[in-house]
Design goal:
single chain, mainly beta, 16-stranded antiparallel beta barrel, 19 strands
């Protein structure tokens, strides 16, 4: 969740001028083309949360946080001489957040360098789709930078459509090589130091199969396996033992995750779609979870639709979790991070989409505007709200 509408309107004039020189890509003509602008998505959002189980202060204390996020995603397409479709996707995102809990790394308000921060996350991907063979190859690179974290990622994937084009198999591999800056709680810096870095690597493999069952029903199955190695805790998360002593969160240096998911879409006539999703998750830290998601887009007019949605989530606690002042010196690993505790959560909201034939705000190439709002609550008394806006230029 995290993200209001700052970037979109500032770029309207620039994009409107660009539209005068842009010809939409034709993916069916099979005529050689240069790489041409196909689509731009501008997304901005505002997120806020509140709670009283901050891991920075040992599982107690404020979790207030706000985040303003803006991203621009630009897609270019060309058709090669053999009919292959080439797609280049470039995205740049910038988040700015303020966190009351991070302020308490130094145990005094407005003293921590992490109390507010900016995260920058560019990504680049390229795909080649061969309509004749049904094969698609793609690869991408990504990066994410903030005050105490640096991440570099890469991915490759291969997709193969069935002979009748109603099914598609996809295999994907992703890798993230991260560096965590060791910003330790102030009272532990004399013994632990401060400012060094530790590595954290994540490798993920994914297999999925989608099938058009009939003209009304589509379904997708997905299985992932994720392996993490390195420093998997956060250095500024405190843990208080039963004797009142303070320690730094300490977790194993490896973790294996296995999510399994199924997604379905059913077209109920011309105006209603029922979209359902279920995921089962387990890992070797003994956390298991279930996610059930339902969204029902309803077309009110040919150009206006609403999409109510609801997601329910439940998880068990990892075997290393205990709350404030419950850990003892006999525990090999320990955390009081309530994200790793047992809880249930709900996320409910509504999306509104407008796609007028003459364009949003009368600008022809602004083809769609979508606004979404959601409210999140979980049984650890954490609540949050998010509002986002997406403007599509095509």
């Amino acid at each position: 969740m995290k993200r209001i509408f700052i970037t979109g309107f500032a770029l309207m004039g620039l994009l409107r001028a660009a539209a005068q020189d842009t010809t939409p890509a034709d993916s069916t003509a099979y005529k050689p083309q240069k790489l041409q602008l196909d689509e731009i998505n501008l997304v901005s959002s505002y997120y806020r949360q509140d709670g009283n189980n901050s891991a920075v202060t040992g599982g107690v204390g404020t979790e207030k946080l706000t985040d303003i996020s803006n991203s621009i995603d630009v897609k270019f397409v060309k058709i090669g001489s053999t009919g292959k479709k080439h797609t280049l996707d470039v995205e740049v995102g910038v988040d700015h957040y303020t966190s009351a809990s991070s302020d308490m790394i130094d145990l005094s308000a407005n003293s921590s360098a992490s109390s507010s921060d900016i995260r920058i996350y560019p990504s680049l991907s390229y795909s080649v789709e061969n309509d004749q063979t049904g094969n698609t190859f793609s690869g991408g690179l990504s990066s994410s930078t903030e005050f105490d974290y640096q991440s570099f990622g890469g991915n490759v994937s291969f997709s193969k459509k069935t002979k009748d084009r109603n099914g598609e198999f996809t295999a994907k591999f992703q890798a993230y090589l991260d560096q965590v800056k060791m910003i330790n709680p102030i009272e532990l810096r004399s013994t632990l130091g401060n400012g060094n870095s530790e590595s954290r690597n994540t490798f993920a493999g994914s297999l999925s199969y989608s099938q058009i069952v009939n003209q009304n029903f589509q379904i997708l199955f997905q299985a992932d396996i994720v392996s993490q190695q390195g420093y998997l805790a956060l250095p500024f998360h405190r843990v208080y033992f039963t004797d009142g002593t303070v320690h730094q969160e300490y977790l194993p240096d490896n973790r294996l995750k296995i999510p399994l998911a199924v997604r379905g879409s059913y077209f109920l006539g011309d105006n209603i779609i029922i979209r359902a999703y279920y995921r089962y998750y387990t890992d070797d830290w003994k956390l298991t979870s279930h996610t059930a998601d339902l969204e029902i887009p309803v077309k009110i007019t040919p150009f206006f639709s609403v999409s109510p949605f609801y997601r329910y989530y439940t998880q068990s606690a990892v075997k290393y979790f205990k709350s404030y002042m419950e850990h003892t010196g006999a525990d090999e690993f320990f955390t009081s991070n309530y994200d790793l505790s047992k809880f249930n959560s709900s996320f409910i909201g509504m999306g509104v989409r407008l796609a007028p034939p003459k364009g949003v705000f009368g600008i022809k190439h602004f083809s769609a505007l979508e606004i979404r709002y959601g409210h999140y609550s979980r049984t650890t008394n954490l609540t949050s709200d998010i509002v986002s806006i997406n403007i599509k230029y095509k």
